[in-house]
């Protein structure tokens, strides 16, 4: 519906995001000055002054004469994991999304995703962003999929790098194996070990751990690729499950809510052939892979498709 929201610019996110990207936020962890910041980071002095003044007005920076540094609230929000106000850098995933979305006109012409910004920090931002999104829903999803008696269930979490769902399964007594891409495993491996989760580095389009598993969990991965890849992934999942085992997919199902069509645009600008898929498409892939008893439920505001390997 047309409304005034389209007039809103997320100014705070854009200012803070740019300050993170250019190193200003990190440099402000210790006392510094506008001039020293511009010199150290090779930035334009006028631009640094304007942006740091805005950060101060927004409460991220404190000033004492010429000296500037991060405020106590900003330190808690960004760096202090013990603080109830801790957010980490999960907002940087949103910031990166905006940077791709503004290229939608070009994508409409060439049909290609926006080239990725190769900043190595982006893996961390993506994990933190995904983790934040999953935190509230994960325990309810784990309850729903594993019931009250998960003790020892062998769960394969495909693309489970942020470890939030994996940790919720493990908390119910499951033996969890997470498969994700090498940079993600490098970043999250130590945390997985501490949580008693086995983390395997690999590409789910090439192969899955042998199993057999009782449950294969596909959290928000089917929107990354196209129909052929998903059909093939479901076939591989079928091979990795024991007879009677379950596949569970969390994704936004096209045709059931308007947000699925809008999220399709996110996948258009960020992937080669990803998108949001209809329940009929999931049903077809599952059927071809030999699954039966396909269901669609809504749990903790997430759509969950489940099916059984006979
Ligand atoms: C959108 S995130 C979803 C994370 C988590 N499952 C959740 O639901 O919150 C997609 C995850 O899949 C991983 N991934 C993407 N392509 C992959 C591939 N080809 N093989 C293995 N993991 C992949 C990403 O690194 C990321 O951790």
Automatic annotation (TrEMBL):
Active site, per annotation: 223
Domain O-methyltransferase C-terminal: 118-291
Pfam families with a match to the protein in the record: Methyltransf_2 (PF00891)
PANTHER family: O-METHYLTRANSFERASE CICE, PUTATIVE (AFU_ORTHOLOGUE AFUA_4G14580)-RELATED
Recorded GO MF terms: O-methyltransferase activity
EC number from the UniProt entry: 2.1.1.-
Listed transmembrane segments: none
Annotated protein name in UniProt: Methylase involved in ubiquinone/menaquinone biosynthesis
GO process annotations (BP): methylation
Alphabetic keyword roster: Methyltransferase, S-adenosyl-L-methionine, Transferase, Ubiquinone
Enzyme class: transferase
């Amino acid at each position: 519906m047309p409304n005034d929201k389209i007039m809103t610019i997320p100014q705070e996110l854009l200012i803070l995001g740019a300050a993170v990207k250019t190193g200003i936020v990190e440099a402000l962890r210790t006392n510094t000055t506008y001039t020293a910041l511009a010199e150290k980071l090779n930035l334009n002095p006028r631009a640094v002054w304007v942006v740091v003044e805005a950060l101060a007005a927004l409460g991220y920076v404190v000033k004492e004469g010429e000296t500037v540094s991060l405020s106590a609230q900003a330190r808690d929000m960004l760096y202090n994991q013990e603080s109830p106000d801790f957010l980490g850098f999960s907002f940087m995933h949103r910031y990166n999304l905006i940077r791709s979305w503004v290229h939608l006109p070009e994508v409409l012409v060439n049909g290609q995703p926006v080239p990725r910004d190769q900043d190595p920090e982006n893996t961390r931002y993506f994990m933190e962003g995904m983790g934040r999104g999953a935190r509230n829903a994960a325990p309810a999803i784990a309850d729903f999929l594993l019931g009250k008696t998960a003790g020892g269930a062998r769960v394969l979490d495909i693309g489970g790098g942020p470890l939030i769902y994996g940790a919720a399964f493990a908390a119910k007594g499951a033996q969890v194996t997470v498969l994700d891409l090498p940079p993600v495993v490098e970043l999250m491996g130590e945390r997985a070990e501490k949580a008693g989760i086995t983390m395997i580095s690999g590409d789910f389009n090439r192969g899955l751990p042998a199993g057999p598993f009782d449950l294969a969990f596909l959290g928000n991965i089917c929107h990354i690729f196209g129909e052929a890849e998903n059909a093939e992934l479901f076939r591989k999942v079928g091979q990795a499950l024991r007879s009677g085992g379950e596949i569970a997919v969390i994704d936004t199902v096209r045709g059931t809510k308007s947000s699925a069509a809008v999220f399709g645009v996110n996948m258009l600008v960020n992937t080669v052939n990803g998108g949001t898929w209809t329940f009929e498409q999931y049903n077809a892939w599952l059927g071809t892979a030999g699954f039966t008893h396909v269901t669609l439920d809504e749990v903790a505001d997430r759509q969950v498709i489940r099916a059984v390997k006979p």
